[in-house]
Amino acid sequence: MSEQHELILTIDHPSGLHLRPAALFVKTAASFQSTIRIANLDREGQPESDAKSMFGVMQQAVSQGHRVRVRAEGPDADAALSSLQQLVDQRFEAEE
Known about the structure:
The chain is of the alpha+beta class and 96 residues long. The chain has one domain (4-89): HPr-like (Histidine-containing Protein, Chain: A), CATH 3.30.1340. Helix content is 31%, strand content 23%. The chain has three helices and four strands; from the N terminus they run βαββαβα. Strand 2 and strand 3 form a beta hairpin. The longest helix has 13 residues, at 77-89.
């Protein structure tokens, strides 16, 4: 079993993780083999969702300023978390 890695990110995008930012987040997560899960730490009791699923990410109801925990497990877990960190740091201004 591979080691699980995690990261806490603060979503600074004005619309949070809705529509375009969520689509970019899912697209980035889906480009990796690792299992990636997301949980909104600012919504008490919110269970983790699949970060490769648009429905899963939207279900987290992440607004601007919310903190999310992203967990990755698999062969490219570190690279996946690094890419998601970069996407958030750039406020979802990724090249398309």
